Amino acid sequence: MRPAMAVAALCLCMLAPRAYAGEASTALSQCLTTSVSQDDRRALVRWIFSAIAAHPDVAGLAAINAGQREELEKAGAEVFERLIAQDCTSQSRSVLVSEGADGFSAAFKTLGEVAMGGVVEDVQVKTAMAHLGEQLDTQRILKALLSQ
């Protein structure tokens, strides 16, 4: 049960809203972003998507069964484990000693942003996101912004 709690803590650190970014966490961020492969990014994005899809407001929009979710979690955990225990061990140790959980959180937040950045930069995603503009009532928005 302890390894599961450690992985859960790492995931929470990655998704934490605020984090202190000092010298050690900056070094860890750099190591993480240079050590992560395109396949790693894909695994992280898929895991993040599956986690978000568990939210009640969107759960009905994505069909992820328990087996798929477990596979995505395992793939994401493999990436985290390799990055911490192999590729960026000294930087991880340093940030935990000098900056604690906040520094660790800042570094993994950067990794999450790098992984998700590839998603929002995808041409198909940009096109899909642009469709929102087609649904906007621009006259209403302009009227609201220009009136006193």
Give an overview of the whole structure.
The protein has helices spanning 2-15, 23-35, 38-52, 66-87, 89-98, 100-120, 123-135, 138-146. It is mostly helical and 148 residues long. The model is unreliable at 1-9 and 14-20 (pLDDT under 50). It has one domain. Helix content is 79%, strand content 0%.
Which helices and strands occur, and which strands form pairs?
Layout: H1 2-15, H2 23-35, H3 38-52, H4 66-87, H5 89-98, H6 100-120, H7 123-135, H8 138-146
Helix pairs in contact: 1-6, 2-5, 2-6, 3-4, 3-6, 5-6
Distinct helical segment count:
8
How many beta-strand elements? 0
Principal-axis shape equals extended
H/E series, N to C? Answer: HHHHHHHH
Q: What structural class is derived from the secondary structure elements? A: mainly alpha
Distance between the termini: 59 Å
Describe the largest sheet.
none
Number of domains: 1
Brief write-up:
This protein is mainly α and 148 residues long.
List keywords for this structure.
148 residues, single chain, extended, disordered N terminus, mainly alpha, 8 helices
